[in-house]
Write a structure and sequence with these properties.
The protein has about 270 residues and is mainly β. About 5% of the residues lie in helices and about 55% in strands. The chain folds into two domains: about 150 residues, Beta Barrel (Porin); about 110 residues. It has one helix and 16 strands.
Length: about 270
């Protein structure tokens, strides 16, 4: 029982659920600034608008409508469309939309992807893209929330235990809020449910900004309180981002003893913030 509690409390967020991962963002090739794609996702459907250029160097308007291909590889495929419309200064007189090729979006992880498309029989274009940062988000604040997840790969009777808990969360950030300056974050989870009351887990590490979400690689997590040893353990916090009402994210870690743990957290911002 103690092993289950110690391992689970070191996890502050989780692997994504069976539902489709969320890729909505602006994407670009960091080595080719000046073009990109706007992607909006609804469950397993993606709408992509390309801002690219024709052979004459002029902006050219294409869109794509993609669906999850069902292979379990986070790949979306579909038709590319060419669109023309009314000159913007004139009264609207309609538009035309015609199939012009194919497109696909294959995620390498939640931050990076391969974008492929063909236009009017021309050779396929293949680009390595990533989420594009616009402006930093404010993460700091006091929150109230819950976490849930599982531990897998354990030997013996504690294999795959489930974990559920409630907590108060204090988030602080350090460093200048700019793309050029390294930022850090500290997340302090103070558990308040009957089973885990008195346990405090602190995760800290550097922040890397990818579009609408953050990643914390090289983070550490340490727990104090009943049954805890206070020792920091390595962890990676992924998809850390503000929501409309608060904050959420996930963490993965080798929890020791052959166990791999994952747990997600979500919290609402306290009204006095």
């Amino acid at each position: 029982m103690l092993k289950r509690l110690v391992v689970a409390l070191l996890l502050l967020a989780a692997a994504f659920s069976a539902r489709a991962l969320e890729y909505t963002d602006v994407y670009y090739d960091k080595d080719e600034p000046g073009w990109g794609a706007f992607l909006v996702q609804s469950d397993k459907f993606q709408f992509i608008a390309f801002f690219i250029y024709g052979s004459d160097g002029k902006a050219t308007w294409y869109t794509a409508q993609l669906m999850d291909d069902g292979t379990g590889t986070n790949t979306y495929t579909g038709t590319l469309y060419a669109i023309t419309g009314t000159y913007f200064i004139n009264p609207w007189a309609g538009y035309t939309i015609n199939p012009a090729g194919t497109a696909s979006f294959q995620a390498a992880d939640i931050y990076h992807a391969t974008l492929k498309y063909t236009v009017n029989g021309l050779p396929m274009v293949t680009k390595a893209v990533q989420r594009q940062m616009l402006t930093p988000y404010k993460l700091a604040g006091n929150y109230s929330g819950s976490m849930a997840g599982s531990i897998s790969g354990c030997a013996g009777p504690q294999a795959d235990p489930m974990f559920r808990a409630r907590y108060g969360l204090a988030v602080t950030t350090g460093g200048d809020e700019s793309e050029q300056t390294t930022r850090t974050a500290t997340l302090v989870f103070t558990f308040v449910d009957n089973v885990h009351n008195g346990i405090v887990c602190t995760g800290t590490g550097p922040l890397t900004h990818f579009g609408r979400i953050y990643q914390m690689t090289g983070a550490t997590v340490a727990c104090t309180g009943p049954g805890q040893d206070g020792n920091p353990r390595a962890a990676t916090i992924d998809s850390l981002h503000p929501t409309g009402q608060g904050i959420e994210g996930r963490i993965t870690t080798d929890a020791g003893g052959g166990c791999t743990g994952s747990l997600h957290f979500s919290a609402v911002l306290n009204v006095n913030n």
